[in-house]
Amino acid sequence: MVHTDALLRTALRMTKNEGDSEDLVQETLLKAYRFFDRFERGSNIKAWLFKIMTNIFINNYRQKSRKPSGVSYEEIDDNFLYHQLEGSIGKSADPEEILFSKLMDSDVRKAIDELPEDFRSVVVLAFLEGFSYEEIAEITDIQLGTVKSRLHRARKLLQRSLWDYAVQRGIMAEGSK
Fold first, then answer.
1. Is the pTM of this model over 0.90?
2. What is the pLDDT of residues 24-73, one digit of tens each?
3. Distance CA 161, CA 17 (A)
4. How far is residue 40's CA from residue 54's CA, in Å, rounded to a whole number?
5. How far is CA 90 from CA 57, 85, 93, 94, 98, in A?
6. Could you give the count of Cα atoms lying within 13 Å of 72 in the half-sphere of its Cβ?
7. Domains plus CATH for the chain?
């Protein structure tokens, strides 16, 4: 499908877990197939798919937040972290994702990941997926003004959290804050 890669990238940024992101995209495509008769011909199918995915993510998040999770120490493998790191090396075959990972420093990714969910979702849709403000409003089912204010606030939060990063790399002069 044409937009599957974009859906996967965004789902991975939303869920922060490869397996969960694949499940989210699969559920999105199944729901889109099941309700394709409701799709308005001539409208933006990519925005429609992202709206479905965002709604599924929000619903799943709400369900999970209501249920407390418990972990048994017996279930934790002593080498869990090692296996996670070992499995992630060289796993991505998508050249665009490899390039993105190389271009985007871990500090920047961490700063985006640490944004509150409302801000992170609009940042991912606007800056990483290239959606217009109007499309983001449609996908997330929020007002256009809210999209703009969340992006503005997200930029300010990113600016604060990435200030040291910018100074260390010579992007900003130390006293120019």
1. no
2. 999 999 999 998 988 888 888 888 898 899 889 888 776 765 665 555 55
3. 23
4. 18
5. 27, 10, 7, 10, 9
6. 2
7. 1-67 (1.10.1740.10), 102-171 (1.10.10.10)
